[in-house]
Amino acid sequence: MILSIVTLLGALGLFLYGMNMMSSGLQKAAGSGLRKFVSSITSNPFKGVATGLGVTAVIQSSSATTVMTVSFVNAGLLTLRQAIGVIMGANIGTTMTAWIIAVFGFKADVSALAVPLMALAFIFSISKKGKLRDFSEVLAGFSLLFLGLSFMKSSVPNLQNSPEVLSFIQSWSGHGFWSVLSFVLVGTLLTLVLQSSSATVALTLIFLNMGWIGFDMAAAMVLGENIGTTITANIAAAVGNSNAKRAALAHTVFNIFGVIWALALFRPFLSLIGLIISGLGLDGSDQTPLYSISMLHTVFNLINTGLLIWFIPQIEKLVCLIVKEKKSQEPSDRLVYINAGMVSTPELALTEAEKELVHFGKVMRKGLDYVQDAVEESDSEDHFREWREKLVKYEEISDRIEYEIINYLNKINRDGLTDASVLKIKSMYRIAGEMESLGDSGEAISRLLGRGIEHSCKLGEEHKKQVNAMIALVARSYDAMVYNLENESSLENIDNAVLSEVEINSLRDSLREKELDSDGRSGESYFESVLYLSLLEELEKMGDFIINISQALMSTRRNEAPLSSAWDD
Q1: Interval 474-485: pLDDT, tens
Q2: pLDDT band per the 50, 70, 90 thresholds, residue 41
Q3: Residue 221: helix, strand or coil by DSSP?
Q4: Which pLDDT does position 334 carry in this prediction?
Q5: Angle at which helices 495-517 and 523-557 pack, to 10 degrees?
Q6: pLDDT higher for 348 or 203?
Q7: What gap in Å lies between CA 384 and CA 140, rounded to an integer?
């Protein structure tokens, strides 16, 4: 008995591993087109439902779709109202898994094909064509999934040999509506533990096929699975913003409402499923109970969506009422877009990272304003101290944001990415590093000014004016950088960034040459001149970091690995 339980757990692990591998392969095959497809959703709720259904049908994971949707809401790529429609569609799309298992997993011994399919997957995996390598994962995952299903069926004790199992189950099944509620709870808890509605459905179909439970109890388990599957998105949203939490809660509200009406009309609902199965000519065979559960799963989500799609605005108001808006925080103190939990869909995770890099750029742009304030107030130690502290704080913030972005990128599974997306990640590492260097430069400028104050060395008005002229050019360069980050997908060139860098270098050269050629570089004026030239060099260095970011973007557009900048000198 213990060996059977251990074998069942191992088979369940094999099933889940195969499901994850198949989902990963399908996501890779879909590539970056999946990101573009989801982010192009309009406010039309029917298109949102169609998108959720389509994406889930493609990647065979409603959990991945809902987590991705919550992440997109957190990143501001989807509104809460749009997300609710996508989640409804994901609930319909996930019912395909039950049909695949019911049709192929029991009628024929698909596991007999698993080894030949695995051989074919190996051949595809060594192909030079990326799409074939991606498809090899789909085949391997499909094979492992049905091997796991086969082992699960064989490891479940036969009731003829273990009649005590049936008596135990029957003790749960003979209490009318309380039994229905008990099996709803079992389905919910199983899904919570396994973190996969597909695995719960597979176990339900096996228990039904082996005669452990009747059709009504299996139906109750499926209803419970619809509640349990919402936990994944709620976990992902736990550290997200208010809208991310609302999107996850909307998923829970949607499914709980569905389970309530299905339980209130439980017997009529089961009769409806029987009529549909009979009308389609699927009755009268050993497969009928399996088809009936799959049909119930599909019809339940279709009816629930058909009812609630008209009440999306009301659902939005309800979740907004429950999850209050957080008090506004200064955006520079924390990440904004990539704090929505786990990284479950590699290609889609890149979108959050892209948005976060735009935010990072805007944070650093704000730091330049503090640089200008520090220069203006460098005559007074008391007034300067405030801006010095802000620039030190911004340097610490840039370190923290860079670390968190890099940590997020490190979590993305490279096996789930296209070659172009792998290059994009390399570019993101480079961009995050250059952003952090901008924070270092701001702090370095404050340190130069602070040292000047300590030695009673102040900038003259003419020097201040020229430093401010350099800051104005760096600000223009920043604006070009942020524009390029925001419009990366349609970026054809970085002429705006190149022009700004040329202007910065040109002004630095002319001001330095003029200063070195000037008379009277002695005594106090000498130290002021050194401070002035040092500030010019640090500002020019900021321009180098900024142009490097735009160059990294273009290297991604050209499918090239990011190289060191030609502007570093």
Answers
A1: 999 999 999 998
A2: low
A3: helix
A4: 64
A5: 160
A6: 203
A7: 64
At residue 128, the 3 state secondary structure works out as coil
Question: What local confidence, expressed as pLDDT, does residue 567 receive?
Answer: 42
Kindly report the length of the chain: 569
Judge residue 549's burial from the number of C-beta atoms within 10 Å of its C-beta, 0-12 exposed, 13-18 middle, 19 or more buried.
buried
Are 198 and 272 in contact by the 8 Å Cβ rule? The answer is no
Residue type, 47: K
CA atoms within 13 A on the CB side of 23: 24
* HSE-CB for 95 with a 13 A CA cutoff: 21
Given a contact cutoff of 8 angstroms between Cβ atoms, the answer to whether 268 and 182 are in contact is no
In this model, does residue 514 exceed pLDDT 60? yes
Residue pair 498/547 in contact (Cβ under 8 Å)? The answer is: yes
The pairs formed by 263-266 with CB atoms below 8 angstroms and a separation of 24 or more are: 263/180, 263/181, 263/184, 263/223, 266/177, 266/180, 266/216, 266/219, 266/220
The C-alpha angle with vertex 156 and arms to 151 and 157, in degrees rounded to 5, equals: 135
DSSP 72-98: HHHTTSS-HHHHHHHHHHHHHHTHHHH
In this structure, are residues 312 and 121 in contact, taking their beta carbons and an 8 Å threshold? no
Q: Is 566 helix (H, G, I), strand (E, B) or coil?
A: coil
CB atoms within 10 A of CB 451: 12
Residue with tokens 């142009």: 547
The answer to whether the CB of 424 falls within 8 A of the CB of 479 is no
Identify the structural domains of the chain with CATH numbers, from first to last. Answer: 2-322 (no CATH), 343-557 (1.20.58.220)
Q: What pLDDT digit, counting tens, does each position of 375-393 carry?
A: 888 887 778 888 888 888 8
Does residue 392 contact residue 378 with C-beta atoms inside 8 Å? Answer: no
As a whole number of angstroms, the distance between CA 319 and CA 321 comes to 5
pTM of the full predicted structure? 0.61
- Mean pLDDT for all residues in the chain: 78
Contacts for 83 with CB less than 8 Å, ≥ 6 apart: 48, 69, 70, 72, 73, 247, 250
Q: What is the DSSP code (8-state) at residue 324?
A: P
Contact (CB, 8 A) for 362 and 438: no
- Asked whether residue 506 carries a pLDDT value surpassing 90, the answer given is yes
For 120, counting Cβ atoms within 10 Å of its Cβ (0-12 exposed, 13-18 middle, 19+ buried), the class is middle
Query: By three-state DSSP, how is residue 106 classified?
Result: coil
Tell me the per-residue pLDDT of 392-429, one tens digit each, with 9 for 90 and over.
888 888 898 898 889 888 877 776 566 778 888 889 99
Query: Are 21 and 118 spatial neighbours (Cβ–Cβ below 8 Å)?
Result: no
